[in-house]
Amino acid sequence: MEEARRITSTKEFEEISRKKIQEYYKKEGIELDKDNDIFVVWLAKALGNAKGVFITNKMDKKLYEITYNGQKNEMYLDAYIKEENILIKNDEFRTCTKKLDKEIWKVWRYMFFLIKRVE
After folding, report:
1. Which among 43, 47, 87, 94 has most CB atoms closer than 10 A?
2. CA-to-CA distance for 41 and 36, rounded, in angstroms?
3. CA pair distance 18, 21, nearest whole angstrom
4. Is pTM, for the whole model, over 0.85?
């Protein structure tokens, strides 16, 4: 039996990820152009594995995390919904815990969205 082809590049991982997000929306009856409506926030590939964070230009507050497990040759799509946007002032940095990481990603995603809207 022939083994399924493995993902070997970040470009290939990104292309498949965009396609899967496009299919996710299509199930809801929403058409997306995978090249113009889906944006990469963060992407990394190491040791045969890959992970990416993506957003769309839809105002549904969704964030997508796609993971490729190279050992199992499987991909996982996680969809998250932004619950709130909390301002974190400079004087609060020292007292923050793991919650800070979560909030920074929210702020980063929002900033990226605004930049893309202006372009």
Report:
1. 43
2. 14
3. 5
4. no
